[in-house]
Specification:
There is one protein chain. The protein contains 5 helices and 8 strands; from the N terminus they run ααββαββββαββα. It has about 230 residues and is an alpha+beta fold. It has one domain (about 35-230). β1 and β2 (about 75-80) form a beta hairpin. The longest helix is centred in the first third of the chain and has 44 residues, at about 5-45. The N and C termini lie far apart (about 80 Å).
Length: about 230
């Protein structure tokens, strides 16, 4: 067997494998994109405490999420598809150039607002959705996820036990001042409506969640104030 034959054989095999992989990726892309859409719907619904299996996410999303809009830094509605907003890209822009997604849900005659937040954890990006009651100050639920936080530590931001702490917390005080949620190392003071317990051993990720919520909700504040005054 000559070196030339080995080289040609290897080259042909590489080309065949590349073609097969490329074809498989092309065929699987629609399914992958659909799965990503379903997961996003599940996460948005989780922010208003509606559990949804992937197979029923689309139906429940259409049933409860009645309005999706895009707003700018002044809280004004602008053109765009809220579901397609990439918050990672938006956060790279100056605040005055950002577009922010808002989802409005109607559940048993109650109106809820779901907003998206994104930030940085210890090893990579973290993100989530926060659901607010119609008063736009009280959190009904929250949903968080991450790209690469440490299992058993920072990765616990996506555990339901951590997320459930946010239910009933408030982002404005009784005087109407903006008071984003603090994630407190060692435990939040009992009865504090603006604080939750940090993740044990996940200090940097916990700080990232606090920063993400503060910066994310701050960007939405003009929209909240505009709705409350209307």
């Amino acid at each position: 067997m000559t070196n030339r034959y080995v080289f040609l054989y290897a080259s042909v095999m590489v080309i065949i494998v590349a073609v097969v992989l490329s074809g498989a990726a092309t065929l699987l892309r629609p399914r992958q994109e659909r799965n990503m859409r379903m997961e996003k719907m599940q996460n948005i619904l989780a922010a208003i405490d509606i559990p949804a299996a992937r197979g029923e996410a689309e139906e429940l999303f259409a049933r409860y999420v009645t309005t999706a809009k895009v707003v700018n830094y002044q809280g004004e509605e602008v053109e765009g598809d809220a579901f397609e907003i990439d918050l990672q890209e938006e956060n790279r822009k100056q605040l005055e150039d950002r577009n922010l997604p808002v989802f409005i849900a109607e559940v048993e005659d109650d109106t809820f607002y779901i907003v998206a937040v994104r930030g940085a954890g210890l090893w990579g990006p973290i993100w989530g959705y926060i659901g607010l009651e119609s008063d736009l100050r009280t959190i009904i639920s929250a949903n968080f996820d991450h790209a690469s936080e440490t299992p058993g530590l920072g990765a616990e931001i996506s555990d339901r036990g951590f997320e459930e702490q946010f239910a009933g917390k408030r982002i404005f005080d009784d005087e109407g001042n903006f008071r984003p949620i603090r994630v407190v190392k060692g435990g939040a003071p009992e009865g504090d409506p603006h604080a939750v317990d940090a993740i044990s051993g996940g200090t940097i990720t916990s700080n990232g969640v606090e920063d993400m919520i503060r910066n994310g909700l701050e960007a939405y504040r003009p929209y909240f104030e505009k709705i409350k005054s209307s």
